[in-house]
Write a structure and sequence with these properties.
With 293 residues, the protein is of the alpha+beta class. The chain folds into two domains: 187 residues, no CATH class; 95 residues. Helix content is 64%, strand content 10%. The protein is built from ten helices and six strands. The strands form two sheets. The chain has a four-stranded antiparallel sheet with strand order 3-2-1-4. A hairpin with a 2-residue loop joins strand 5 and strand 6. Helix 3 runs antiparallel to helix 5, helix 6 packs across helix 7 and helix 7 packs antiparallel against helix 8. The radius of gyration is 22 Å and the shape is elongated. The two termini are 42 Å apart.
Length: 293
Amino acid sequence: MRRAITKKQSKASFILELVVLVLAVGGLMGFLLSTDLFDFPKPEGWVQKSILIGGVLVMGIVALGLHELGHLLAGLGQGFQFQLFVVGPLGIKREDDRIKVYLNKDLGAFGGMAATSPVTDDPANARKFARLILAGPLASVVFGGLLLGASLLVPTPFNILLFTGGAISLAVFLATTIPSQTGMFFTDRKRYQRLTTPGKDQEVELALLRIMGRYAQDNSYRNVALQDIETMAADDLPFIQFFGLFNLLAWQQEMRGTMDAATQEQYQALAPEMPKAMVAGLDKELERMRGEG
């Protein structure tokens, strides 16, 4: 039986995880900066300083992008279909079975997002997805170490830029493994735990994978089990519930030719809590289905 978690317990857990994260990142940066190995000369002149200022911003985006690229390549390497890659202002997405490059204006997605989805309802999807989840933090650790090592081989200000990128990559690793959530989204560590630990959370994660896999077979809900959709729509977490309600509306439209008014009200009530770009994309898909109905 799943133990109920009160808001007070949840808040206390979040604060504890945040404190641990701050201490871990602070300790990491303090150690790196106190090491003689990384005692770089300061940049001289406006050219070096300009390169440093602009480069630090770029390296921050690169570090975040490398993390998401780890997720993306792990998914593609296991046969999943590309859906989305966003980092900073760069956006790449699948739209109408075509790959589209666009300017990302959603600040909430600037930190990076990547998505691939299974194309079959394979029992091995859970194991594949678990590998995909681990690939992000692993990429951050590997690239963080490589960038720190490379910083010892180049002159100022490029050594400082590579050092910054490496430090940010290691900080991203800590940020995606110590807390349970960042905003409404689960961190990689928590998602992996949900997927591999028996219980209600695992049932929700597996239901999501079955929905994506069966829908991708023929871009239709005819093979998608209504029970899997209802499992997500009944979850107590708003983000999962919202995605479940979207799939329920889409299933209703395709299988019954109309969307239930009560389900639409639930969906619209949760929409303001979700990222605007995501809501816009899902709304567009529902409108397309209505037009075809």
